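Lecture 7 notes: from sequence to structure.
We start with the chain below.
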Amino acid sequence: MGDSSWWTLAIAAVTGGTAVLASWVTSRGSAQAARIQAEIAARSQSAERLRESRRTAYLELIEQTHRMGELYWEISATLRLPGSDDRTATLTELHDREVAEYAKIRRCTRVVELEGPPSAAAAALSLQKATGPFYAAVKQELAGEGDGCDAFDVAYRPFWAALENFVDAARDAHQRAEASGADA
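Predicted structure tokens for the same chain:
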């Protein structure tokens, strides 16, 4: 009986040790799995925040571009009026608004450049630069250096084409980010 109790005690000790070891391994594995799951969730949330911030930046630039376009239509209508002091005063006021709206489009462009990706940033910069001919045409008209109306009208097509290019680049970047679930 003495031997049998010793064996029972030994088996109980081994069984208990195995249970403790198994519990330790399981808890360690569970902790590692939880850590991995938390890392994946954090990366996913980070990617989602980036996609959302990019989307917001893209939309703000598109909205600002449309505001600029509406202002350009006002300027275009004013440029078609016969020359007068009232026309010059209105054109000066519209030019001041153009400068203020340009500052907003420039800020929106910088945000897109910050958020990326490079393809959307390049398209945003091209869109910002497409406002230059409008500015030059109004300055030309205010300075009395020729017909700013024709130069202004010629600037519309490249401006709207630059907006279309930006929308395409932004859509492509957004779709790549959605498809990959990560930074695009």
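Points to note: The mean pLDDT is 88. The radius of gyration is 33 Å.
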